[in-house]
Amino acid sequence: MTVEVERADLHRTFTASAPHLRRILPAALYAAGVSHKPRVLVVEDEPTIAEAIAARLEAEGFAVDQVHDGLAALERAAAWNPELVVLDVMLPGLDGHEVCRRLQADRPVPVLMLTARDDEIDLLVGLGIGADDYMTKPFSMRELVARIRVLLRRVERARSAVTPAPDVNVNGLRIDDASRRVWSDADEVHLTPTEFDLLSCLAARPGTVLTRQSLLAEVWGWSDASGTRTVDSHVKSLRRKLGADLVRTVRGVGYALEVGYALEQGS
Predict the structure, then answer these.
(1) Where are the chain's structural domains?
(2) What CATH number matches the domain at 168-265, 3.40.640.10, 1.10.10.10, 3.60.15.10, 3.30.750.80?
(3) Can you list the residues of the chain whose pLDDT is less than 70?
(4) 3-state SS string over the chain?
(5) Could you read off the pLDDT of 167-222 as tens digits, one per residue?
């Protein structure tokens, strides 16, 4: 399928839903329960798609701004300080991967990437440079909103944690839950918020096999199994950053932090 045909299909998908999006839910109904409207920056070069996403998020109570190229995204993010970025991969100028890399180097922020290609290599590249989640176009607006809320809740939970878990040391790997930092031997390893939460979840029960569904519920806050590939992709990203043998796969079941290492907590 050509890029032109893909873009035409996406245009029809989002144009069909755009006219009624602003009438879905008054922003006050959502904003009444929070101290402020979470700021979401939408970076999408197709104006129809960008407007449809912005309209839905505004209707759900978010403060939204939108830009249409990579350089503008970096400039707006620096000036506006968004709490989450919805970022398309295919952008003019700087592509979404480079934008994500620069955003995370400057000030880590949750990033949900959008792609028109269901390509695992593209997905792993995105996760490797700091993206927290991804969605393939065309996608459900309801699912987009749900994933954004999960990412924001996770960040808020980390900030408000009163009693962090003790440090975990695994054969040269140290996990500091209080500062949400990880070291491999003497070198600090940058993990995205989602990667850290996944590693922390596995490290809390070393040797215990956790199903993909339980990981989705605990780390992502999802109650169904529709995102099991997301778990697999984040595990691959962890292995690439921390070592291929750290997380053991139990085929057809899930994952466990490998207990072949000498694991010590609280040291």
Answers:
(1) 3-160, 168-265
(2) 1.10.10.10
(3) 1-35, 118-121, 124, 158-166, 170-171, 223-227, 259-267
(4) CCHHHHHHHHHHHHHHHHHHHHHCCCHHHHHCCCCCCCEEEEECCCHHHHHHHHHHHHHCCCEEEEECCHHHHHHHHHHHCCCEEEEECCCCCCCHHHHHHHHHHHCCCCEEEEECCCCHHHHHHHHHCCCCEEEECCCCHHHHHHHHHHHHHHHHHHHHCCCCCCCEEECCEEEECCCCEEEECCEEECCCHHHHHHHHHHHCCCCCCEEHHHHHHHHHCCCCCCCHHHHHHHHHHHHHHHCCCCEEEECCCEEEECCCCCEEECC
(5) 777 667 888 888 888 998 889 998 888 888 899 899 888 889 999 999 988 887 77
